[in-house]
Amino acid sequence: MMVKVTPTVFVKEEGVYRERLELYEAFVDRVQLDVADEEFCLAPTLSVRQLLEVPSILARDVHLMVSEPVTHLPVCAEYGAGVVTGQIEQMSDQKEFAREAERLGLKAGLAVDLETELSELNWSVAKEVEQILVMTVAAGKEEQKFNRQALEKVRQLRNKGFSGEICVDGGVNEDTVVFCVRAGADLLAVGSAIWKATDAKAAYEQLSRLATAAPGKLQ
């Protein structure tokens, strides 16, 4: 399976968001919108509606780092979001989240925070979702140091037979790409390593090349 790189958008101001969309529309077709409330950060991001109501040619996945992610699914469906992933730590019921996403015609994903063990996943639900997102930093904060130990969760998911998309999110850059790919990830969510680069397109293309050229996955 080809490993893909998708830029993330973690913003608190609409002007910055529009600039970021314009930047990415020039060289990608898919981004991940990060939505965080006060449970995750002192200065919350723009809301799901504020993000999705801005027109864009990009396919937009949504990573919900919010209390009770299920309550945000109707807005995601209203605006035609792609994969919608919620932090399991903030869910009362993982099954309810997945079922509601399906009812609304959305592709569901489950996200596991840095300190959360895979045993917290409801496997009967997790094995059927579109995506499992593994955080390699603490959710809701930018520019943290990559935690390589978290990649053990990726290996465990593959060993358990998860056949969906495994996304690694947090601290992914030119130095850490190879570890993510070798662990079994097939989607890399990248923030500042792209948008802070002098040439964002070149940075994205280099990360994509590194992901494609990375050595075979570890068993």
TrEMBL record:
One of its GO terms (molecular function) is racemase and epimerase activity, acting on carbohydrates and derivatives. Pfam families: Ribul_P_3_epim. Gene3D superfamilies: Aldolase class I (3.20.20.70). It comes from the Bacteria. InterPro entries: Aldolase_TIM, Ribul_P_3_epim-like, RibuloseP-bd_barrel. GO terms for biological process: carbohydrate metabolic process. Signal peptide: none annotated. Keywords: Isomerase, Metal-binding. This is Ribulose-phosphate 3-epimerase.
